[in-house]
Each structure stands twice: as C-alpha cells, then as structure tokens.
Input
Amino acid sequence: MNEVAAALAFALLPVAGNLSGGLVAEAVAVNEATLSYALHAATGVVLAVVGLELMPEALAVGAAWVPIISFVAGGLVFLAADSLLGGVAARLGGDSGARPWLIYAGVAVDLFSDGLMIGTGTSIATSLGLLLAVGQVPADLPEGFALMAALRARGVEARRRRLAVAALAVPVVAGALLGVRVVRRAPPLVRVSVLALTGGVLTSVVVEEVVPEAHREGGARFAALATVAGFAVFAAVSRYAG
Output
C-alpha cells in the first residue's frame, strides 16, 4: 500500500469515531443535561487538541512569532465565518439556527487537522500515521455525539443532520491528502503556521459557540467536570498512544 492510500485508509478511523458518536446521539433520548455534558466534554477535548498537540508543535520551531500571528489569524477566520453565517441567518428571519452550524464548522476544522496530522505522519512512517489515526478516535466520539445532539435539539430534520455528519468525511480526507502530498514538502515554518491557524479557529469556536450552547441547554451541575474529563482523556491518549 502506497503512502497516499495508507493515509486515506487511516483517515477513515476518525470519521468512524465521529459517526459512531453521532449514531449514539440518534439512538438515545438526549435531554438538556446530557447535551450539556456532551458539549462540555467536547470542549475539553478540543482545548486539549490545541493546547497539547497543535500549539506546542507550532511553537517548537524558530521564529515563533509567525505561528502566534497565525493563531490570531485563526480567530479572524472564525469571526468572518460567524459574521457570514449570522448575516445569512438574519436574512432567513433570525439567528437561532446559526450556532449549531458554527459548531459543525468547528468539528470540520478539527477533523481537517486530524487528517492533516495523519497524512503528514504517514509520509514519515506508515506506523506513525496509523498511531495518530487511532489516537484521534477517542477524541472524535464525544464530538460526534455532541454535534448530532446539538443539531437534533435545534430541530434540524433527521435526514439533513445525518447527511451533514456523513459529509464530515470530506475535511478528514482533504486534510490527509494535503498532509501527505503538500504540507510535508513545505518549509517547517509553513507547516506549523497551518497548525496554529487551525488552533486559533478551534479555540474561537469552543469559546464563542460550544460553551454558550452547552449553557443554553441548562448547564448541568457538574458539567465543568466533563470539560476537565474530556481534556484528561485526550491528554492520556496523547501521552500513552505516542
């Protein structure tokens, strides 16, 4: 199996994790407390991805100010997307449906970063790409659950939300292809700037969209523990899965 085929095959693992979480959310009754816990857990996972994987890697090269600026640029990308979706929603008669789709965009960016890491890792060694892919699955399960539950809570019809979650395979595959064919050949500073930009987008999404959505659903009493647990689970996977 050549490295491109291997990267694409490995990229299907995070997709499967995300879809599995979404299917669980479809199969069970999700009340406000459950959704709040799921969104808080997803917040912890994403913060761990940014804080333990993306930014340490980005800051490990010289000229750290470049990825730092890229991180800020990621926040600007989020603001542009927020403004665009808010404007569209206002024209349709309100912005109540915009937030779940911004969360969707955040999950898509996270999966894109998964694919990017898997593709780049596979170009170095097939075993590394596989290890990175397996390590992302526990993080993608709560994200898929929280996303599907949020779409369901906001009244998005079943067929539409299932197609939307299935379509999340696209950013993972795109990231894997970009990683294995393009990013690995780019200068190190360019590679880490892409990671930092991704980190800026993800941080903005969880702070501005996921957490407010979690509290809109009631902010279950011990939900903060779900955030810490999500962070801890990803930290354990990152540490012990290489």
